[in-house]
Amino acid sequence: MGAQLRVYKQKISSAQTTKKITKAMELIAASRIQKAMARVRAAGPFARAVTRAVAAVATHSDIDHPLTQEPETIRRSAVVIFSSDRGLAGAFNSQILREGMELAQLLREQGREPVFYLVGRKAVGYFQFRRLDSAAEWIGDTDAPSFHTAEQIAAELLDAFARGGESDGVDEIHLVYNRFVSMMVQSPERVRLLPLEVVEAEENTADSHVYPLYDFEPDSSEVLDALLPVYVQSRVFNALLQSSAAKHAATQKAMKSASDNADKLITDYTRLRNNARQAEITQQIAEIVGGADALASGK
């Protein structure tokens, strides 16, 4: 019986230690969410302004720019998957990887070859474990992403898009990331980044009537050459920031659930320990009484 009591005490101590760790991680994630959401809000106005400017130039100019033309045949499609470098975030990484693989399967059914670009160690590890190929990988900058990482990703995507599907490049670009909806909800998103018309047709129909008329100097083609890389960088950076905020929210939710489970374990093991202690006391009393009766009857 004493050995059983020691086992319960060890389990209670282990659960209490685990609770301290998960509670600390929950508080850290809560503080990081506020910083991540502040960065999302700060980057939002610039991203929206660039999007409106590019949409206006593409709408009100009569040019055939490579980044705004729908290819006659789409052979290869870039799928950029935004995961995290760390785990302990519930279903954050599994749901975005599942979303990316479902998109890849849909593209294959349409006769398009998916080309994967991976952001975050979890996505890289997932592909390495399954021996799947990827065109490029970026790790180590998902908790607090920098604009330099967005520039690198955008440059790689634009270079592949410029080569085209016939020359080991891509004909279209899709972003797959978790969008921060609330502290409890992180929604996986699929966005077709290029060609441009598809994105703007979905997101700016309500604002199309407010576009001003533009005069282009020197010409609209050079304006698009200058604006579109900035547009792609801003969209990629926004995806990085959204994914970072969603990951911290998922971590906080997962750590709160872990802390609650640790509390439940402590309660359950404490009850079992008390029951075992009571049984031990009852047995000891029974032995004392039995011994006393034996002595009494021997006299």
TrEMBL record:
Family matches, as Pfam families: ATP-synt
The UniProt record lists the keyword Transport: yes
Keywords of the record: ATP synthesis, Cell membrane, CF(1), Coiled coil, Hydrogen ion transport, Ion transport, Membrane, Transport
Bilayer topology term: Peripheral membrane protein
Location relative to the cell: Cell membrane; Membrane
Gene3D superfamilies recorded: 3.40.1380.10, ATP synthase, gamma subunit, helix hairpin domain (1.10.287.80)
Coiled coil ranges: 255-282
Keyword check for Iron: no
InterPro entries reported in the protein's UniProt record: ATP_synth_F1_ATPase_gsu, ATP_synth_F1_gsu
NCBIfam families reported in the protein's UniProt record: ATPsyn_F1gamma, PRK05621.1-2
Membership in a protein family: Belongs to the ATPase gamma chain family.
SUBUNIT field: F-type ATPases have 2 components, CF(1) - the catalytic core - and CF(0) - the membrane proton channel. CF(1) has five subunits: alpha(3), beta(3), gamma(1), delta(1), epsilon(1). CF(0) has three main subunits: a, b and c.
Function: Produces ATP from ADP in the presence of a proton gradient across the membrane. The gamma chain is believed to be important in regulating ATPase activity and the flow of protons through the CF(0) complex.
Protein name: ATP synthase gamma chain
Species in which this protein is naturally found: Microbacterium awajiense
Organism classification: Bacteria, Bacillati, Actinomycetota, Actinomycetes, Micrococcales
Gene: atpG
